Amino acid sequence: MTVAALTSGTERAISTPRGGRAPPGAYLAIAACVAVIAIMAAPMALSFLASIKTAADASAVPPHYLPQALSFENYAKVIHFQAGLAAYLSNSGLVALMTIAACIVLAAPAGYGLARFAMRGKEVAFLGLLAPIMIPYQALLTPLYLDFARVGLVNSHLGLAIVHTILQLPFSIFLMRNSFEAIPREIEEAAMVDGCSAWKRFTRVFLPLAVPAIVTVALFAFINSWNEFLAALIFMNRETSFTVPILLVSVRIGNHGAVDWGALQASVVISIIPCLAVYLALQRYYVSGLLSGAVK
Amino acid sequence: MAPALLFVAVFVLIPLGQLVATSLSDRSLLGGGKFIGFANYWRIWNDSSFWRALEFTAKYTLVLTPILIGLGFALALLTVDNTPLKRLTRTIVFLPVVIGLSSSSLLWFWLLDEQVGLLNKLLVDLHLIGEPIVWFATADLAFWAVVISITWKVVGFGMVLFIAGIQSINPDILEAALMDGASYWGRVRLIILPLTRRVLLLTTLVSAIGSMLAFDQFYIMTSGGPRGQTFTAVYWIYQNSFISFKLGYGAALSIVLTFIILVFATMQIALTARSAET
User: Fold this and answer.
1) Residue B152: which of A5, A43, A47 has the nearest Cβ?
2) What digits encode the pLDDT tens for the residues A185-220?
């Protein structure tokens, strides 16, 4: 389901009777839509336009809406900023990949267990797994920082990925559980009759059927890890270990005090593109995940 | 399930225990850690800066949440029809939800700048204001600057939940109301609003929890200023723990905040659990 496709027959009855002449309300709605699109699209569009200005044009007072001349000067500056853009992109990418892997590896079996096994203490286990929702991760950063400092996980991709997994795990488990619960029991029984063990049923029957949920888990893990700010600010405090959100803040501080507006907008655009690309490619999964698990 | 439970135990429950222990000590980033009982908690009681930050966070939550709910609901009503234009509107409104809070905050920090900011230029060009507004010079304006940027960033979230809620209404009910001659607003008020009440509650809670934990947007846009008037609760904890290195005190503040969030989160889980059953 995409945001655009979020409709059934319901809404037709909400607005106007079929067949009739379009009422004045319809024209008003069209005008409102155009205005909404303009307001909502303008900030990102203007940021992109500013990023392809020359550096001088981007800092002009008063500013121009449109670039006076095309230039990739701002991007060139960001590419060579401090440790280099490549380092920051790979920091963010690696942390996101580790978070995705950890969420899938931890949440899939947990969701399977919660959905399929009757056992004592299941409720307690479920509550335990949901504990990270009840406790804001912001509160855990101090003890985690002290522990991680002791074992060398500060300024480490793995350390930040662990924090991002804490953040993302309850949602992932919730999603996997719902997905496994929706798989008909008959399929599982057929596999049982054929002599499949519980582990085989999980890997051969359940996991393939839960691919959409796994994609959704990966998608949310990517976007939330890529964008997470506070833990990255605290845990990645060495210039070479910054992730992209921290890079943005240091680009603003710049090298000389005055804000380099062109470079700042170029780095904002760079930070946004992966999110938009992944989201637009996998919209269907994003919206269904949002609707089924508005937990976090 | 065991690996996930182990993970939660090691990285959530044990740190939570350590947090409680730290909150009862005078630990700093440099050392210390002597047990001092509830002294940190007594200090919170007298820490007017913390209470001001909490009050500011509550104000932010109380102002932002109704805006997000109202606009989200209005946008859902506007775009629930399935025409190409409305589909496009929906997609555009939702885009900022997936970008980073740091990206959107820096984007708005630039748009609102009094010298190079294009929003100021636009308002001047439209003769709505005479002079560019210096948004971050007063606490009030800085507050509204953040509210505007966050509204742009997350309004699509509520919109999508409301569209899904409206969509799940039985079409027969709306059809019947139409037959009975109910006007558009009559249908909205008497059918759609009551039948999307659960979505409304859920969106309220998600938005309230998010706002009570606000940090990024204030750190980036206002730096807590001017004169420390826009510190949020999480920002104040960050400031104490990682800028002043008062880890014991920061831990005690964290515990107080956790209790506040716990109330909201419990309500949210109860609500989500119930919706999963129906």
Assistant:
1) A43
2) 888 888 888 888 888 888 888 889 999 999 999 999
- pLDDT class of A128 with cuts at 50, 70, 90: confident
Claim: this prediction has a pTM higher than 0.80 = yes
Q: ω into residue B226 within 30 of 0, thus cis?
A: yes
CA A189 to chain centre: 36
The tens digit of pLDDT for each residue in A44-73 reads: 999 999 999 999 999 888 899 999 999 999
- Find out whether A54 and A68 touch, Cβ atoms under 8 Å: yes
> CB pairs under 8 A, 24+ apart, for B91-94?
B91/A2, B91/A3, B91/A4, B92/A36, B92/A37, B92/A40, B92/A41, B93/A36, B93/A40, B93/B155, B93/B156, B93/B159, B94/A3, B94/B156, B94/B157, B94/B159, B94/B160
Nearest CA to A183 out of A214, A206, A212 is that of A206
DSSP code at position A240 = G
CATH architecture of A79-292: Orthogonal Bundle (1.10)
How far A98 CA sits from the closest chain B CA (Å)? 15
Domain ranges, ordered by start, for chain A: 23-76, 79-292
Residue A80, strand partner residues: none
Q: Is the pLDDT of residue A2 over 80?
A: no
Provide the phi-psi class of A280: left if phi over 0, else alpha when psi is between -120 and 50, else beta: alpha
Cα Rg of chain A (Å, integer): 24
In A111-185, where do the E strands start and end?
A: none
Q: Which residues, other chains included, contact B184 with Cβ-Cβ below 8 Å and sequence gap of 6+?
A: A14, A15, A25
Of the candidates A292, A3, A6, the one whose C-alpha atom is nearest the C-alpha of residue A176 is: A292
What interface predicted TM-score (ipTM) does this complex get?
0.91
Residue A3 has pLDDT above 70, yes or no: no
Q: Where are the domains of chain B?
A: 59-231
Residues 163-202 of A with CB under 8 A from B: 165-166, 169, 173, 178
CA angle B212, A292, A10 (to 5 degrees): 110
Classify residue A98 as exposed, middle or buried by CB count within 10 Å of its CB (0-12, 13-18, 19+): buried
Does B7 contact A at CB distance below 8 Å?
yes
Which residues of A are less than 8 Å from B272 in CB distance? 294-295
Q: Which of the listed CATH numbers 1.10.3720.10, 3.40.50.960, 3.40.50.1110, 1.10.443.10 matches domain B59-231? A: 1.10.3720.10
Q: How far apart are CA A138 and CA B56, in angstroms?
A: 18
What are A251-289's pLDDT values in tens digits? 988 766 688 999 999 999 999 999 999 999 998 888 888
